[in-house]
Amino acid sequence: MNALSKLVAVEAKLFLREPVSLFFVFALPLGLMLVFGLPQRGAQPAAATGQHGELTFLPSIALSLTIGMLALFTLPMALGIYRERKVLRRLATTPVSPALLLVAQVVVNLVMGVAGAVVTALGVRLLLDQPAPANVPGFVLAFLLGVACLFAIGLLIAALAPSARAAQSIGPTLFFPLLFLAGAWLPRDQMPTVLARIGEYSPLGATVDTISAAWAGQTPAVSQLLVLAGTAVVGCLLATRLFRWE
């Protein structure tokens, strides 16, 4: 077993010991869908109007919520705790590189995010009597790029935050405005034009839109996919370069 697989195994065990993280991945998105989706159970797409009326919006925002919480809450806080407890300093004396540790964190959180996506898709199909994603390749691409983009931002926060408390503050401070721009509370078609345009290309907004389009059987917007991919590349490069052991 090489260094990466050992790190992944350890990080997975630590993740599974945290009930709050498991709640974010499985219980919260499913509960959100049941609370807001049961009144629309069995409804036909033709009856829905507006961003919040679209039947694909609820599962899309639920999936994006899962990804966002893993990326901006769980991931930075875990690395912040490691830094506070001098775990990173001790690892720095071993052959483990910062990039390897970041990769292990990403792998574990990605697996949990995929598991959450499967539970969400099954919940939509079995509990809400709504169809599964119609454009599966587009859905997978949009989901993975959304994960890459948001995780890159989370890793950058983890690289810059000096402590777990700082990471715990920065993540939510960034997460809730992004959630607003995604249209979670106010549909973007009711926002001012400039704000709606910004939300369309924000990390969570682009994730919600591309997942929603693929779920409805459409092709996700190439421009939004490129924004997600570009943010992921830049964020990962900066996180690797700026990551500090202590």
TrEMBL record:
GO terms for molecular function: ABC-type transporter activity. It holds the Pfam family ABC2_membrane. Keywords: Antibiotic resistance, Cell membrane, Membrane, Transmembrane, Transmembrane helix, Transport. It is a multi-pass membrane protein. The chain crosses the membrane at residues 20-38, 58-79, 100-124, 136-158, 170-187, 225-243. Residues 20-246 form the ABC transmembrane type-2 domain. InterPro entries: ABC-2_transporter (IPR052902), ABC2_TM (IPR013525), ABC2_TM_bact-type (IPR047817), ABC_2_transport (IPR000412). The keyword Kinase does not apply. It comes from the Bacteria. This is Transport permease protein. One of its GO terms (biological process) is response to antibiotic. PROSITE patterns: ABC_TM2. It is found in: Cell membrane; Membrane. The keyword Isomerase does not apply. Belongs to the ABC-2 integral membrane protein family. Its main location: membrane. One of its GO terms (cellular component) is ATP-binding cassette (ABC) transporter complex.
